[in-house]
Amino acid sequence: MTEAAEIEPVATADVPRRRFRIDKSLLIVSLIIGIGLALVTRGLMIGVTGDDRAGLPPLIEEVNPVPQAEQALSQTSVFVDLASGYTGQLVIDGVELPTVDVSAVANDGVEPGEQISLPAATVYEPGNATLTFIPSEAAAITEFTEGEHRVTVLYWALDETPQQARRFTWTFNVI
Questions:
Q1: What are the residue boundaries of the structural domains of the chain, listed by start?
Q2: Of 31, 91, 108, 148, which has the most beta carbons under 10 Å away?
Q3: May I ask the CATH architecture of the domain 53-174?
Q4: pTM above 0.85, yes or no
């Protein structure tokens, strides 16, 4: 019984080999998808966005409105975040704005949680090394009119003088 149950090997040389026909439309679609994926991957790898796109100097961490902003509002504030240990001054549309140190404005008689009144100038916060200007009726710039505006920040180390200032200029558009 074991002799009858044995399976005889089949010769593979006798079986003709099947040739598959290549579906040209499937091949073309596959190539297009592959090329598309390669282009998207390349675009993501070489794309420059965010802070890298702004091209900020190393000592300026952030500016707002961002350079070449297209849709800033007329009451938008101008904000510059400098590296620790730096101070500066803003010049907006050729108007040199005075800078006030917030620590010099804080009154000793202020209760915790009470608001302090800030002058209508660029406010420098030494703890954060930030400059902030908010247009107001009492400020040199009451609002940003429609169109392009140019901001220059002059910045220097605390142990330097304003004559040693570096500068960075950018523009933004108000709608």
A1: 53-174
A2: 91
A3: Sandwich (2.60)
A4: no
